[in-house]
Amino acid sequence: MSATAPIVHIVDDDASFLAAASRMLRASGFAVKTFASASDFLTQRDGDAAGCVVADLHMPGMDGLELQAALARTGNPLPILFLTGNGDIPSSVRAMRGGAEDFLTKTAPKADLLDAIRRALARDVCERGERVFRREVSERFETLTQREREVLGHVVRGSLNKQIAGDLGTVEQTIKVHRMRVMEKMRVQSLAELVRIVERAGLAGR
C-alpha cells in the first residue's frame, strides 16, 4: 500500500466491529485507521489526510451526526458515510441533507459498503482538487490592487471598457491597461477564461 494512499477512517465505539471492519477493508485493498470515538478521531486525525470517514450513528459523547457537523467546519471536510446498527429515517434524512455519501446498516451487503467507500474516496479527490483550485485563484486575486479589483468586477458583469471608464471616472485607455494587468496576475489568456475562473472560485462580486 502506498504511503500516500487515501485512508478510510472508521469511527465506532464497538471494538469488535472496529476490528472486523478494518480487517475486511484492508483485505479489500484499503488503507484503514480506526478510532473508538468521534472526539478521538477529531483530535488524532491528520488534518491534511485524503480519504473518507465511516462512522457509527449512535456513540457515547459526540454522536455521528455531531461528528458530521464538526467535520464540515474543518479545512479538510472528508466525505462521510454512516454504517449503523440502529438507523432511523429522521437520522438518515439529516445525514443525507448534511452531505453524507451514504447511510447503511451494519447488516448491509459487503458490496454495498465497498461501493459507498469507493464513491466517497472519488468524491474526496474531486472536492480536494476544487479546494486547491479555489485557493490558488484566491491567492492570485489577492495580488490585485483595489482599482484592478474594481475593473475585474465590472468585467465579470460584462461591462465594456468605455462603460467601465465612465463608471470609474477615468479614460478607456487606462481601463485597457488595468484589464491587461488583471489578466496577467490572474494567469488567464482570455476574457472568457477570466470570467469562468472568477465565478468558479466564488470571487464574483468581491
Low-confidence stretches: none
- The fraction of residues in strands falls at 5-15%
Overall geometric form: elongated
In sequence order, what are the helices and strands, one letter per element?
A: EHEHEHEHEHHHHH
The secondary structure category is alpha/beta
* Strand adjacency order, main sheet: 2-1-3-4-5
CATH class of the largest domain: Alpha Beta
Task: Give the N-to-C terminal Cα separation.
Answer: 44 Å
pLDDT averaged over residues: 93
If classified by CATH, what would the architecture of the largest domain be? Answer: 3-Layer(aba) Sandwich
Total discrete domains:
2
Note the main sheet: 5 strands, parallel
CATH-defined topology of the largest domain: Rossmann fold
Topology:
Layout: E1 7-11, H1 15-27, E2 31-35, H2 38-44, E3 51-55, H3 64-72, E4 80-84, H4 89-97, E5 103-105, H5 110-141, H6 146-156, H7 161-168, H8 172-186, H9 191-200
Parallel strand pairs: 1-2, 1-3, 3-4, 4-5
Helix pairs in contact: 6-8, 7-8
Notes on the structure:
The structure is a single chain. It is built from 9 helices and 5 strands. The protein is α/β, with parallel strands linked by helices. It has 2 domains: 7-135, Response regulator (Rossmann fold, 3-Layer(aba) Sandwich), CATH 3.40.50.2300; 143-200, Arc Repressor Mutant, subunit A. Strands 2-1-3-4-5 form a 5-stranded parallel β-sheet. Helix 3 (64-72) links the parallel strand 3 and strand 4 (80-84). The two termini are 44 Å apart.
Short description:
With about 210 residues, this protein is α/β, with parallel strands linked by helices. The chain has helices spanning about 15-25, 40-45, 65-70, 90-95, 110-140, 145-155, 160-170, 170-185, 190-200, and strands spanning about 5-10, 30-35, 50-55, 80-85, 105.
